[in-house]
Structures are given as C-alpha cells and as structure tokens.
Design brief:
Blueprint lengths: L1 E2 L6 H12 L3 E3 H11 L2 H12 L5 H12 L9 E3 L5 H11 L8 E5 L2 H9 L1 E4 L5 E3 L18 E2 L6 H15 L1 H6 L3 E5 L4 H11 L1
Parallel strand pairs: 1-4, 2-3, 4-8
Antiparallel strand pairs: 5-6, 5-7
Helix pairs in contact: 1-9, 2-3, 4-5
The protein binds BIS(adenosine)-5'-pentaphosphate.
Length: about 210
C-alpha cells in the first residue's frame, strides 16, 4: 500500500514495483480517470469531485476496489496506489482482506510540500498505457510521445495549481489520519531524490 500526498511518487513507484514483482498496480485515480474518459456511469459520478480536487464518495471507491481485488491476477499480491484515503476505506479494506490484512506493507512516501507543485505541474501521462513522465525529471525521448506505446502524452485536468492546493488540503484533513490508524505498521520512506533511489528504499522495506 502506497500512501502519500499528491506528487509524492505513488504512481511512479507503483508502476516500477508492478514490473519488478510482477503483480498488478491498482491506482484508484487511474481507474477513475479511465471511467471519466469513457464517459460511463462511474465516470459521470466521479468527474465533478475529481475536477474540484475532492474525494469521490467512499461507497463508490470501495465497490471499485472490491471488484478489482477479486480478479485472478491479485491472488499473488497487488500494489494499492491512492487507496485507502479515508479511515472508512481503511476499515473496509481490513474487512475485505480478513486475515491477509495483517500482511499488508503500509508504505508512506514523504514529500516536502515545496516539491509537490513542481512535480505535479511537470507531470505528463500516457493516454494509451498510463506511463508517467515529468518534463524535467523523467522526460520522454520524443516530446509528447510515450516511449513504451507511442501514444500521446497529456496533462491531467486536475493538475492546475488551485486544484492541486485543494488536493493537498484534502490529503491533510482526510487521508493523513490513516497513518494513525495503521500506527507502527507504517514504513516511512523519503520521496525526495532520484526515482531509482526512492525505488531502492521501497524495495528495502518490502
Ligand atoms: P490520484 O490519481 O491518486 O492523485 P493523487 O493522490 O493526488 O496523486 P498523484 O497521482 O497526483 O501523485 P503521485 O503520488 O501518484 O505522483 P506521481 O508518481 O504521478 O487521485 C486523483 C483523484 O481521484 C483524487 O483527487 C480523488 O478525486 C480521486 N480519488 C482517487 N482515489 C480515491 C480514493 N481512494 N477515494 C476517494 N477519491 C479518490 O509523480 C508526480 C510527478 O513527479 C510525475 O511527473 C513523476 O514523473 C514525477 N516524479 C515522481 N517521482 C519522482 C522523483 N523521485 N524525482 C523526480 N520526479 C519524480
């Protein structure tokens, strides 16, 4: 489980861990963005919350995660990115996993608030495969094009400065208390430094 504020690197590290351990990377943010771009029922329900930087209601998110974790590819393990985000979600996850809940590695990626905006404003995401780039820190070889699948890169709608500030506030109010819920089980990992360095720190914890 990767916890941390916006821009901490949850998605970047989730993708790397997924490749390294060959287990699925489950990002509730990505699932929601996919639903919004398809314009399906979930997307229609989630869009207004996401645009404002608010949390999507617990009931919707919990249902998404229940369905995703029941899939065959999660049997060997999985990486949760951006879930849980409220104490209610954390409790539901415990109920869902039952005995296995004790085996979760709870990893909190710390990032100094001054770095958040820089990370988020430079982020670009692949339309096709979701790979993450940064204009300065991890640019694609060819501007605007994904190295992996050749699709176009885009900037997220919720990455404007005012929405990011709102997401940081929501994180501090609703999500940070989860660290208290997990208590001593939380492994703190410093999110500053090169992507590979952070990756090594997380692997060390796992
Ligand atoms: P979500 O997509 O989860 O957004 P977030 O938590 O704000 O996190 P980000 O995706 O912005 O950052 P990240 O930590 O993944 O950083 P990244 O690796 O991309 O959620 C979006 C919205 O969906 C929410 O606001 C909410 O509305 C809704 N939602 C989602 N889950 C929900 C839930 N459980 N309950 C309710 N609502 C939910 O890195 C950022 C940039 O920095 C990238 O460009 C990357 O290349 C770069 N970078 C990463 N690491 C480094 C490094 N070490 N050095 C330099 N650059 C780096």
């Amino acid at each position: 489980m990767l916890l941390g504020p916006s821009g901490a690197g949850k998605g970047t590290q989730g993708e790397l861990l997924s490749q390294f351990y060959n287990i699925p990377w489950i990002s509730t943010g990505e699932i929601l963005r996919d639903a919004v771009s398809k314009g399906d029922e979930l997307g229609k329900a989630a869009r207004a919350y996401m645009e404002k930087g608010a949390l999507v209601p617990d009931a919707l998110i919990i249902e998404i995660v229940k369905v995703r974790l029941s899939k065959e590819d999660c049997k060997r393990g999985f990486i949760l990115d951006g879930f849980p985000r409220t104490i209610e979600q954390a409790k539901e996850l415990d109920n869902l996993l039952k005995e296995d809940a004790k085996r979760l590695k709870v990893i909190h990626i710390n990032l100094h608030p001054s770095l958040i905006l820089k990370r988020i404003c430079g982020r670009r995401t692949c339309r096709g495969c979701g790979t993450l780039y940064h204009l300065e820190f991890s640019p694609p070889s060819s501007s605007g094009i994904c190295d992996k699948c050749g699709s176009v890169l885009y900037q997220r709608e919720d990455d404007s400065e005012d929405v990011v500030r709102k997401r940081i506030e929501v994180y501090n109010i609703n999500t940070r208390p989860i660290l208290g819920y997990y208590g001593e089980r939380v492994h703190e990992v410093e999110g500053e430094g090169k992507i590979e360095e952070v990756f090594e720190r997380i692997k060390g914890v796992i």
